[in-house]
Amino acid sequence: MKTFWRKLRQGLDRAIYEGRFKQFVWLSGVLILAFLIVLLLAAVFRFDLVAAAPGVEASSGSAPVLVRLVELLLDPGAFVGSGAYNYVFFQFLVVLVGATFFTSFLIGTIGNLLSRRVDSLTDGRYTYAFEDHILILGAGSALKNLLHQISETGTKCDIVIQTTQPPEAVRDQIRSFKIKPCEKDIYVIYGSRTDMTALADLRFKDAREIYILGEDDEPQHDGLNLKCWNQIMEECKGNPGVKPCYLMLDRITSHHAFSYKKDNGSTPELRLNVISAIENAVQGVLVSGKVGKVEYPTMLDRDGIGKDSDVNVHLIVVGMTQTAYAFATTAAHICHFPNFRTKNKRTKITFIQKDIQEEMDFWMGHYSTLMDISYAEYRKWDEAGQPQVKKFYPKPEYINPIYSDKKGFLDVEWEFIDAGVEDANVRKYIRECVAKDGISEYLSFAVCGHDAEANVAVAMYLPGEVYETDKIPVFVYQPLTRFVMYPASETGRYRNMYPFGMRGDCFDPKQERLLWAKRIKFIYDMSGKYGKMEEGAALDERWYDAGNKYALQLSNIYAANSIPVKFRSIGIDPSVRSGLTADEIEILAEIEHNRWNVEKLLNGFGALPFVDRMEILKGLLSSSAADRGAMKTRKKRLKNECFRHADIAPYGELHHESLKYDSDIVSNLLDVIKNE
Predict the structure, then answer these.
(1) Is 613 exposed, middle or buried (0-12, 13-18, 19+ CB in 10 A)?
(2) Average pLDDT rounded to a whole number, residues 155-170
(3) 134-283 against 304-505: fold identical
(4) CA separation for the pair 648, 96 (Å, rounded)
(5) DSSP β-bridge partners for residue 184
(6) Mean pLDDT of 243-248
(7) What is the CATH number assigned to the segment(s) 304-505?
């Protein structure tokens, strides 16, 4: 009996805690039990109608008794007519039982259910049978820009946001975004994106699109996003239909590691799009010229650097954070110009940081294949202010004596300055660079420290000569908000100071540059048989095909990013041109190859020594079909198994088949950027 009462109390408490219909089940059980007890007592007392008042006819039978008992249980007011029955005191007890077990319990249960439902909605613990919805996993800073994009497209569907933040706080934040058209369709649900039970409640298989954003400043952000994507991918296998899935990675290293995948991550059910948050933000600055509401009117190459120009790009990056890496590598991807051949002018990228030696060594190791064939300098000053410069030349075995000087065949060089911008020697160095701006170099700054407010202080502390004209851009990393800089940048003195890297604006999954990349992929696949540009679904099928590795997708994206710089370098407005001349195609083809060299090296591929490159070239030019076939096999094996590419070489050294890839792409760039 003791166990029975314990189990009964546990069941009742669990029902009250869990809420919903279990409370009604328990209420119904209690009511039925109470009614049976009352009915039993009525039989014992022989409760029945009696002629208790003039004009009242006595009757017998069970039906009137049942009706009377139900009436007393349900309506305490029925006690007023108790004089028509015997045992008035018994009727009073039945009324008390009814008022206690029915009226009070029913009101309490309904009130409790409503209260719990409100709490569930407030806490984001109530889900619906969502269908054809947009599912956003995580409520990081990128959420704002994403919701605005969805709103601007006029999309009409439920938008479900799962978050580990307090849902009510996220709702308040969303209200501050002022996205009225779709705000009423937004549902914020509490849960973890790596919990498959929680994901199943969100009906991810029935979603229209999936965005894996994650939360701000959470440990292992990228690892959790990748785990979430893997779980969704596995669960969606065999699911009918196909949907886009956008995966955000915060760390440059995570993005770099993902580029080694043997495929692009897409499946017949999910089309994966990987977004590198920081790299995407930097590309918005240096390629698109606009991120969110911020416009960047000054490019690194200004109005372009042509074959007769005596000017090179010089980018000074303050700090060696992952943002600095992204800024430097993006510049290295796009800053390639025809005056490398005619004037031997190289793009120069300088890092400035106090005690930079350790970070420089890390850079040298991380990009070892690039630095093996790059020219670089390490600069510091002694106590007397005398410069101490250590020069790093490409390894001699990679040098082509015909097409390369001792600095090598790459058109990008590097510099590492071991001192802070507050150092008098550094300030003198910067002033010397400013004096050369527009004469022998186009100077730009990117302040990329960890501390946003310190970045503003550093930018404003640069020598005053930097701000004497509005031609030298100073890009300042501001991950949270751009408004700290506005009071200064609105003045005439700091008008060329621009914020970048705001997390709320960095997520741009459907940018025009992605369409350009898909078109470049099509041209590359046509291999000289290009006739008319493929469009729409056909382009997407080709792009997301499993054979199109993610590294190849990146290559197409980087090629697309360089298009505006290419057109500026030959001085044309692509909007008024219908074709390119043979001379323009040749210039752009060499630029494209120089860009491709750096891209492959940044992605971990290595060059072959000059002797090996000549051996392969000789084999490819052989009159023997067997020799040509054997050399093609060797070249392919080196690329796929050893990450060594024989085409990482001077443009003039290439075999005609390799040259054709570059010319095929650049000769059709006007089709790549056309708007239809």
Answers:
(1) buried
(2) 89
(3) yes
(4) 93
(5) none
(6) 93
(7) 3.40.50
